[in-house]
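Hello,

Following up on my earlier ticket. Below are the two sequence lines again, exactly as submitted.
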Amino acid sequence: MRIDELDTPVLDCDLDVLERNIQQTADLCRRLGIPLRVHSKSHKIPEIAHWQMDAGATGICCQKVGEAEVMVAAGIRDILIPYNIVGAAKVDRLLRLARRATMTVAVDSLETAQGLSAGAAQIAGRVRVLIELDTGGRRCGVQSPAAAQDLARQIVGLPGVDLQGVLTYPSRREAKPFLDETVARLRQDGIAVHVVSGGGTGHEAISQEIGCTETRSGSYIWEGLTRVHGRDDLDSNRCPLRVVTTVVSVPAPGRVIVDGGMKTFTSYPPIPYGLCLEYPELHIVGMSVEHGHIDSRASTHRFRVGERLSFIPLHGGLTTNLHDKMVGVRGEQVEVVWEVAGRGKIR
Amino acid sequence: MRIDELDTPVLDCDLDVLERNIQQTADLCRRLGIPLRVHSKSHKIPEIAHWQMDAGATGICCQKVGEAEVMVAAGIRDILIPYNIVGAAKVDRLLRLARRATMTVAVDSLETAQGLSAGAAQIAGRVRVLIELDTGGRRCGVQSPAAAQDLARQIVGLPGVDLQGVLTYPSRREAKPFLDETVARLRQDGIAVHVVSGGGTGHEAISQEIGCTETRSGSYIWEGLTRVHGRDDLDSNRCPLRVVTTVVSVPAPGRVIVDGGMKTFTSYPPIPYGLCLEYPELHIVGMSVEHGHIDSRASTHRFRVGERLSFIPLHGGLTTNLHDKMVGVRGEQVEVVWEVAGRGKIR
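Thanks for your patience. The regenerated structure is below:
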């Protein structure tokens, strides 16, 4: 089937570009000598996770237990959830996954660790944990090496919970003193630190430089989308994701309406929404829920109803979360239609 | 089951408030003497559409053929799609629906009308159309009464397409001359104008005032969410929708992280994201994909990991599009768990 036989709007992925992006970051990490752990939330598709593993990733990340359930069912066997798993229902699901795969989760409080331990006792299970450090990202994480040491001392006494090391995001040079002091304090206490997990697409070399034992990257497969919000850096030779739309109205000179809006494109970041491959001079100036509003005044092309326009969307992880299916294409041919199996797994 | 037995994040709907909102707008339109056509895209749940019909709505709107397929399958028999349906695949689906329900669609170009006519010829079907007028909304629609007249003259010659009248959005007083002149021009040409469809939650009285034969409303069931972006106007006695989250981290004084982010809340409008029911003094200051970042400095409450916080989200239609299920509650009890059957129907 040819791509133009698909009804729109439709989420497409150029498989040649995707494979090149997967290979490039895998090669980079191999050269740097740092293990790569890939984030499946960027695509939510088990086969892409397997491609990343085949290229050399040592494991994957999921952000929710529901996403991990999808990936374990698809045969992935080493998963880090860099997230505090809180509440008996989720902890039970996590511990059952831990019987089928190596599962590691973040903790930044005794309450979270105690919840894991209580759940482990229920089913005689075990789970690996990393203490999350807030080294400047200002999201979750303990605030100091001393706080990490205090928490580590408490965690090692909890049954069913195996402390493996520490985790932070993003990897930054400024984080090194925090990481070094934390590792030293834990080792002083006789706690083995097997894992220092850093992350961030584009931060692979810094992860290696600051002493991480692995680096987590996700959006690198979409290259540029989440990192670059400006139009100038979007390049169809590097960005494999595209939303193909149809012009449904050309109501007035300079105004073109396509059949994808906020349900198709995500509204984050709010502008410029995307780059048109066929006519890069087009500007998406607004989105209704189901309409994309395009200013075509900079174009000499005479747009007509029924014409197709393809856009590189700006946030891969949020865009894939809006679509039930993603179509993998080579040139103009459809090669695979994937279910976005991890879509909507918010729990 | 009690609401606090549900794992989070979870989308809840207070059924008492929902029913009151449905009844109030139905009563308003009855008093005004204008038929109400309700927009199912706001909720995407067939049972709610039936409640709206039971309260007096004369039909529903869907924004996509896929949404209409869900609603026809659930027994709804009068559907307007105020959207240009473009492309043979969608037109074929539309015309097959038109055998099972009264289907009406918008057109603003001869190309769209010709596509419908060509599809109708394929299956010996018929579909009703309204000419969309851009009376100032600056989205789709013909630009003048004369343009509407030209298009109408062309449409009446097309087999399989039954011109019923005109449509605009939103209903505004300034639109009256455009509407009146268009209707007069069509009637001069001997074209019966059965329908003048206006719309917009809160515009019901204006629709009546400017001579519409029906008014389309959708977000009224969530009362305030899409119309009021400021916190002060959110009121849990009027807004039935809420996202229940769990605190997963209290990493530093004044900072609380909950387990819902941009995949749970929508990132539109970008601030303030939502209003906390339990602690209205909280401010959601940011969203990552899976984390909600809350500034708790204005609160004297000492937040702890595991605590539940409920938020009124700001855009009903986009929020329901992120969730596979919605839970209907009365007080603290779960009464129904709905599949959001129209979610993700982007085609």
